[in-house]
Amino acid sequence: MYLMQLIYSITFLLVIHYCSSNEDIYKEELYIRPLASGHTYFNLLFTTVVSPDILKSNIIHHYHLFPKVIADVVRSNGVSEFHVSLTQGLWRYDRWGMPIVGAPPGAEVWAWFNQDEEKDVSSRWTSFAHELGGLLCASLNFVDSNVSSSSPHHSFRPQSILPKSKASKLDNSLLRYAVLPREIVCTENLTPWKKLLPCVAGGSNHKGLAGVLDNAPKLHHSAYHSLRMDLRQICANTECTLTQLELSMGLAIVVDTATSKPNYNEWTFRSIFGSNIAQSCPLSSLTNIYVDLQLSSTHTFNISPEPDYTIKQGQTPIIVYDLHNEKRKGTTFLMSCNYNKQQQISSTDNQNNNSLPSIMVHRYATGYGARDGGIKTVIKLNEQDQTEQITLLYFEQIPWYFRVFLHTLKITTLDDNSIEIKPEHISYIPGKDRQRSYQLELVVKTQQSIIISFEFEMAFLKWNEFPPDPNHGFYIPSAVVSTYLPSKSNYILRSLNSFSLNQSLSSSTSDGFVRVYSESLLVNLPTPDFSMPFNVICLGCTAVALAFGGLHNLTTKEFGFGEKRPKIPFRQRLEDLKFRLRASRHALVQRLFKKKQHEHTE
Amino acid sequence: MFLRYFLTVLLFCFTSALDPFEKFAESTTRHTNNWAILVDTSRFWFNYRHVANVLSIYRSVKRLGIPDSNIILMLADDMACNPRNPRPAEIFNNVAEQINVYGDDVEVDYRGYDVTVENFVRVLTNRLPEVTPVSKRLLSDESSNIFIYMTGHGGDGFLKFQDNEEISAVELADVIEQMWRKKRYHELFFVVDTCQAATLFEKFYSPNILAVGSSKRGEDSLSHHVDPKIGVYVIDRFTYYALEFLEKLKQDSQKTINDFFHCCPKHLCISEVTWRTDLFTKRDYHKTLLTDFIGNVRRTEIVMLNSQLLDNIIINSTLNQTFDKQDESKQEFTYISQMPILD
């Protein structure tokens, strides 16, 4: 009996060992870019690549580096790919350039689902959003109310690989996109997100790059903070006949690194993250740190320690530190950097134009009062870069209580309001009160900066549909502009082949596709006055008004005793009534006859 | 006839003997798991102290052993990452600003607009929609000890949720009775820190409940002190002194519930701390340990590895699926264009 148990446990262990030979790959990367405005952009990327068998149902799975909760959520809801981001702050395209991947302020979730005859997409989307919200401690359960979800027709195409037969026809009902501009991101979202990483054991002193995530207050002391998670299928080999599942988790922060000395910036790992990187994570196959020195043409840099090697991406030199290097084994990795601006007078014009980004989007709410308003979106293109027309895909989702009028849609050039541009394509789904939000997609081909504007009217909400703080206002989510950047080699962007940077940095495999997000707007709806003193005064005054009459009578009239009314017997009263009736009938007859007599005589 | 009489007496003895047996058995059954529900019901920046209250208690509860999976934390508003907070991602309950009660390891289950009376009642009675994830559910059973802590603005017989709705004492008593009928708790410890707190639990009628409130009917609970660097009151009196008491506790502490009741005497709390023990009949609260509610007992189930279990695992593992992979290799995949509208 004991021997049998021993044999079985040994076989069990062998099975585990065999399964683990189908290795999951885990990579950690930190991308650092000093920016011209005195800020520095840090982007932590954790990528896990695993075999797609993990999504097959009805078998027992073995999880090595891939988090089990994500696999369970994705498998039970039949999700093919999903992307979720939680952001605080707005990315300033004019001062900071292009991010590796953009995100709107608040929470953004979008997912493509598999075709399934049994369960419809809406219920799967609801279930998926609830589970993901519970996982990330965010209120993503609010996406199932139709105010926030939609199915874009042209934007947000799948970033997974698809079988060639299905690639041409895509069913848009399998896509759900939702954005919650009011969601905040704080340590409570970082905690469960962090626990999905392989090298994060309980407590602090984590190994590898996850060690910098321990000091949450330092991470939140930033101008921009964005947490994201993407899951999709990628090619496993060059012919793309086998697939793999890629989970990419990223944390992007933009920190102010200016010092009191003018034009001098300084940072160290300890000042930004609160700790250095202690040892590398033994489970990761790659731990790299990249420093993007795009400012090296105008600033002098002083970085320690010495980089391991340098690569060139377009015009920008990027220095790379490999933490798995033999010489760094078992040591703590510290890094410090300071840079200051060189005094250049001649080439300032050249420098200004180069620093302007290719495309920028700004959005404004227009109008006044509580009845109607408008939205104006300004898409600014850097005209030096444009030699030919660029195609812009503009997507907007407006909650139902701002009723959009499509006939007021106007697209004009920024310089001259009278030149109207006709869009190549308009896809508009009108909203329905309390059921569906307004969805607008425009395709515009242009070479100059444009303004897109339209008007809306505000709806009256029922008194119980207001949130607890109604005077804060209601949010209109960001507009998304998708386009291919003209000079793609100048930018470090996420490439479709792999969301981890090591492959996309050495060879420029990015196609220059970007999604640029605008601000989200805050508009006040006609709000009743919920304040307690007002209600109390109303009720009180009503009561006073009603009671006043009676009270006035009581206080001003004199009461006294009067004569008792004689009691007339019933028979007598009946006689009186009969007499009165007869008399009135007589009077009526008299009147009629009198009239007739008059007519006769005249 | 004598026989019949004898049998009736014997039957009577049996049935009456069952009762004392049951009572004896119940008084020695222990709880097997602990749950904590910590609720802050106030919104807006000037109610910073309520969030600090709840997070202080959360910290103690976690420190004494209850894991995040057994804690339901509800915060009605975000103070840590609030734009008005001069110290982002940090919440302090003391002007000395020594401990960041928000910490680096916090999981909030219900936040913002999710904290409503409806959700609170649904969590307690487990009548949640099917899609609710496990982290947002109270999965207690008949041998769970539950610790409920509520703070916010309250009045005579009600507690205000989020500035636009309220839960009344009668409603709360009925909810707790539902929990009892559905066997969702073994013993319940209810702590309230609001104005006129005692009125919130005076309507309870279910057994095995201990309750303590920071003030009695007609009295206001007062806040403790202001942090001039943050600009708001950072903690309430009752929670401040309760926290001082709890910080000294260790997991094997022998402090009793009665000691907790006396942690804030009148000269410190100014309002009179009121408690209710008449429903807690099975045990003596003078001898009940505080760690029965605020500490944790983990449920352990010992399972023997048998051959049936191992067979199942080996047959159904991914080991057998390697053959299927080779069949699918003939299919070709491709990335699709991100802007197909161009073509």
UniProtKB/TrEMBL annotation, chain A:
* Gene Ontology process terms (BP): attachment of GPI anchor to protein
Output the Pfam families linked to this UniProt entry: Gpi16 (PF04113)
Q: InterPro entries annotated for this entry?
A: PIG-T
Query: What keywords is this UniProt entry annotated with?
Result: Signal
**Endpoints of the signal sequence:** 1-21
Gene Ontology cellular-component annotations: GPI-anchor transamidase complex
Q: What is this protein called?
A: GPI transamidase component PIG-T
TrEMBL record, chain B:
What organism is the protein native to? Answer: Adineta steineri
Give the family this protein belongs to, as stated in its UniProt record.
Belongs to the peptidase C13 family.
Q: Name one GO biological process term.
A: GPI anchor biosynthetic process
**Pathway assigned in UniProt:** Glycolipid biosynthesis; glycosylphosphatidylinositol-anchor biosynthesis
Signal peptide: which range, if any?
A: 1-17
Q: Which PANTHER family match?
A: GPI-ANCHOR TRANSAMIDASE
Coiled-coil residues are none
Question: Where is the catalytic site?
Answer: H153, C195 (nucleophile)
Highest taxon, organism lineage: Eukaryota
**Alphabetic keyword roster:** GPI-anchor biosynthesis, Signal
Name the InterPro entries for this protein: GPI_transamidase (IPR028361), Peptidase_C13 (IPR001096)
Which Pfam family name is an example for this entry?
A: Peptidase_C13
Official protein name in the record: GPI-anchor transamidase
Q: Which GO terms describe its cellular component?
A: GPI-anchor transamidase complex
* GO molecular function term, any single one: GPI-anchor transamidase activity
